[in-house]
Amino acid sequence: MDDRLATILRRFRDFAEEFAHLPLYGALARRLAQDREAAALLLEAQPGQDRPVLWFAAVHDLVLRRPDLPAARWYASVVERDSVPVGDPWPDVRATALAHREELAGLIATRLTQTNEVNRSVYLAAGLVAATHDQHPGTDNAITLVELGASAGLLLGVDRYAIAVDRQGVQAVAGDPLSPVRCEGTDRSLVAVRLDELPRIAGRAGVDRNPIRLDDDAGLRWLTACLWPDVPGRVERFRAAVELMRREPPPVVQGDFVDGLEKAVAAALGPAASTSHLVVFSSWALTYADRARRSELADRLDALAREVPALSWLTAEPPGAIPGIPVPRGVREDAGGTVLGLRQWRDGVEQEGLALGTCHPHGEWIDLDEMPSG
Ligand SMILES: C[S@@+](CC[C@H](N)C(=O)[O-])C[C@H]1O[C@@H](n2cnc3c(N)ncnc32)[C@H](O)[C@@H]1O
């Protein structure tokens, strides 16, 4: 057997083991690990992209477009979640995939998986509270938020969502408690995170090399297709956030996040430029750039910090990914996971970089043990 196909089958097997609890993708991965003909569609992928998630996204995109196909009834994103049948989805999904193999091969050959995970607002909210903890004089506790690798810009709406965080059975809600978008997480931190201190956002913008506009139906469908339909609430939350953010979409400029930084900052800064606390945020984005590029970004932020009273660089990335952010105690650098990191400049002078703690990659829990002093 072709070495590449053997690797693809092994990846499906690993996926099936890790996500055995998922009724759709767990079951499909188990069968794909033994089905050369169906799995071979991934041979069309661009170098380095032949991962199970791309196969799943291509088929998901197809059934979102064609709800009449046999596979569609297994997708909670197409039919009502309660209407998804119990049983083996593979015969329908296999038949649909092989009947549309040309179309799927075309998607697999040209697309990259891309997400915008709204529930990450949980760790973003916690990070914003930490970043503005010192209430630096001259910043009126309002921030200008810039996201690097913003995708469709949905995390820029963090204050427009209800961020419900449970701590030992007691729930606190930050943002807009009446919002149709509800993000949920558990606070496992030693000391409770005060989400009620979420700062006001005076300006916001993002940069992405492939921004998805909120009026681009095909682009949004692909982002939906990259979500896993059998994780309850994930697709529903994404769609609700798109609806809400469409009313007042923040600009997401097209470009590389190092070269496009200044443009994104200019798009976010309004008339309050001179008094605002600039918070530059990234979540599962900088990790895709190489180390030298991340250091270059750090140098650019250092220069930018001389132009504003306060600048914070908040990152939610794997351990060891961000220059100047230590790997938290007890976390192995190669262990994956999400570290919430904070670098701060006040009046142009940098303070010590902090690893605030660790989080679930989709914000299902936060565990912060370091808050900046101030
Ligand atoms: C995994 S997604 C995360 C999106 C969003 N930050 C979130 O947490 O939901 C990574 C995003 O980073 C963008 N990206 C990756 N490398 C980039 C680069 N060098 N410049 C700009 N955007 C980049 C991708 O296009 C993608 O939208």
UniProtKB/TrEMBL annotation:
Cross-referenced InterPro entries: UCP012608
Q: Which domain of life is it from?
A: Bacteria
Q: Per the record, a Pfam family?
A: DUF2332
What name is this protein filed under?
A: DUF2332 domain-containing protein
